[in-house]
Amino acid sequence: MFRVSDGVPILDLRRQYREIREEIREAVERVFESQAFILGAEVRTFEEHVERYLEKGIAVGCASGTDALILALMALDIGPGDEVITTPYSFFATASCITRVGARPVFADIDPATYNIDLKDVAAKITPATKAFLPVHLFGQMVPLERIASLCREEGVTIIEDAAQAFGSWRRVDDKIVRAGVMGDVGCYSFFPTKNLGACGDAGMTVALDPTLGERLKKLRVHGAGTTYIHEEVGLNSRLDAVQAAVLDVKLRHLEEWNVERRMLADRYRMYFGMKKLEGTVTLPVELEGNHHIHHQYVIRAPRRDELMAYLEERGLSTRVYYPLSLHLQKCFAFLGYREGDFPESERLSREALALPIFGGLLPEEQERLVDAIGEFYGA
Fold it and tell me: How far apart are CA 57 and CA 54, in angstroms?
């Protein structure tokens, strides 16, 4: 039993787990009875179910979302001398994986409304050295890639989708539904436990549209071996284990209903903010026309963000900042030569963004209490 008086957590995975506890335990027990823990039938079954869900592509399970990005870059032969355009407003792995393979991240600023990368700025950043474009479908909302796909093809630029936060998100393009991760050339997913589709540890996946690329990804995840102990190239040790696959396969069956719940929670936040007449004070997330936003995070823009966050924390109301420092200003990327002011929209969002709790089982009373407290802080 959850009591509002206990405070409001930023996330509580236990509530969702209690709904499917017996299904999870049965799946995990099946793996332990088989004693087959690495790749194998459980992983292949999950991959097949993902392929069916996405309706296209070759799914290749791996050890994490970070590895998925690295494997995709490796499979596309991206390395020293190559440039990859991406966003400065994302989780660290998006840019770090580019540098890990020896390529150079080139940042483009963000759209202040959706928080996703600004495609006009992307187009302006393409040079003869650009090998790939790596957009991030941030917080569960897709980038409208159809608006730049033809330019990328003309320039020989591969599209690698970072869909780590967007498994299940989709976009309507030419009266067809296309899911996040299968609009470009290869999609990358994270199944970190906090994701909408989350494992019980680290797990990830790549999905390639080209079967040849899919086969190469399968080799790269096992040290580049096509046959056991016969290595055609140097790859990674990045295998999805059977326990994670079994858990994810159970959760995949429930994903659509969970994403519907998240959309309902987002609508309820909007209703409460409207009732408190706060929409002119804080800026609520928007859904781009044609998108099906799955709200992996519910991120508002808030004046005096840090003061508000502290005020809420004192009252047992948890929030979080995604992300406090633009990637172009991170110390480890100083060698790229960017400076403060280079990407003003990303920098401004880093000062204003505040993520509110959004997860399965979040109660209406908890949301209302949080919005009431935000109203009190702003004198509404």
Answer: 7
In sequence order, what are the beta bridge partners of 158? Answer: 132
Nearest by Cα to 129 from 110, 108, 106: 106
Tokens 């179910």 locate to 49
Helices (H), 254-299: 255-275
Q: Who's near 171: CB < 8 A, 6+ residues apart?
A: 142, 144, 146, 177, 178, 180, 183, 290, 291, 292
Three-class SS of 304-327: CHHHHHHHHHHCCECCECCCCCCH
* Cα 107 to Cα 326: distance, rounded to the nearest angstrom: 10
DSSP-assigned states of every residue in 9-68: -S--HHHHHHHHHHHHHHHHHHHHHHT--BSHHHHHHHHHHHHHHHTSSEEEEES-HHHH
Instruction: State CA 361 to chain mean position distance.
Output: 21
pLDDT band at 2, cuts 50/70/90?
very low
Mean pLDDT of the chain: 96
Amino acid letter, residue 192: F
pLDDT value of position 1: 41
Q: What is the pLDDT of residues 253-278, one digit of tens each?
A: 999 999 999 999 999 999 999 999 99
Sorted by where each starts, the structural domains of the chain and their CATH numbers stand as 15-252 (3.40.640.10), 255-377 (3.90.1150.10)
pLDDT(371) > 60: yes
> Before 298, cis peptide (omega within 30)?
no
Cβ 213 vs Cβ 74: under 8 Å: no
Q: Please give the torsion angle defined by the CA atoms of residues 338, 342, 345 and 348, in that order, rounded to the nearest 10 degrees.
A: 70
* Other beta carbons within 10 Å of 337: 8
Q: What is the pTM of this model?
A: 0.95
